[in-house]
């Protein structure tokens, strides 16, 4: 598991990705309202798998289910992403659950590298790369690189990504 701060930072990145994908689908609405809603929902979804486990209806605010079980199940988040994306042409407000699900999926991707892992399909998947809270900078950098690439693809037709690739190719050590 990444730290709470890392999940918040990657949630913002997921919001940018969700807004870009909503714009790419053509569901912008007046004043880009659906892009903004998807962005806000993506931020909220970035921490959702953790706060959905808390029993907010009780005074003690304990977990009502074990950590990293049902709320971290990858199939449910992927189904919500796909279902809401396919529903957007008929129901533009599906951009809100889409953004929320993109944030939740980003949360699971950030939790997968640690030893405890995430239940993606039937069993837990762990890359076992580092312990919880370590390498947050790497996780946040990866999430924001994906967000910048998605935004560049949708709003700038990948001109900046292509320029970065050309720049990196010019730095080849054997050239």
From TrEMBL:
List, alphabetically, the Pfam families matched. YdjM
- Molecular function in Gene Ontology: hydrolase activity
So which domain of life are we looking at? Bacteria
Q: Which InterPro entries match?
A: YdjM-like (IPR007404)
Q: Which UniProt keywords apply?
A: Hydrolase, Membrane, Transmembrane, Transmembrane helix
The residues that cross the membrane are: 7-25, 31-49, 70-88, 137-156
Q: Does the keyword Metal-binding apply?
A: no
Question: Does the entry feature the keyword Nucleotidyltransferase, yes or no?
Answer: no
UniProt name for this protein = Metal-dependent hydrolase
Q: What is the lineage of its organism?
A: Bacteria, Pseudomonadati, Pseudomonadota, Betaproteobacteria, Burkholderiales
């Amino acid at each position: 598991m990444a730290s709470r701060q890392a999940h918040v930072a990657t949630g913002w990145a997921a919001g940018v990705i969700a807004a870009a994908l909503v714009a790419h689908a053509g569901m912008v609405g007046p004043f880009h309202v659906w892009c903004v809603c998807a962005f806000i929902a993506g931020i909220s979804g970035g921490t959702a798998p953790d706060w959905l486990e808390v029993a907010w209806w009780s005074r003690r605010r304990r977990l009502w289910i074990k950590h990293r079980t049902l709320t971290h199940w990858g199939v449910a988040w992927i189904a919500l992403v796909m279902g809401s994306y396919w529903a957007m042409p008929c129901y533009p407000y599906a951009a809100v659950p889409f953004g929320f699900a993109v944030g939740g999926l980003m949360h699971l991707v950030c939790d997968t590298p640690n030893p405890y892992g995430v239940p993606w399909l039937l069993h837990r998947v762990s890359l076992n790369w580092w312990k919880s809270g370590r390498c947050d900078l790497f996780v946040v950098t990866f999430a924001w690189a994906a967000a910048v690439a998605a935004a560049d693809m949708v709003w700038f037709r990948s001109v900046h990504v292509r320029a970065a690739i050309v720049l990196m190719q010019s730095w080849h050590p054997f050239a």
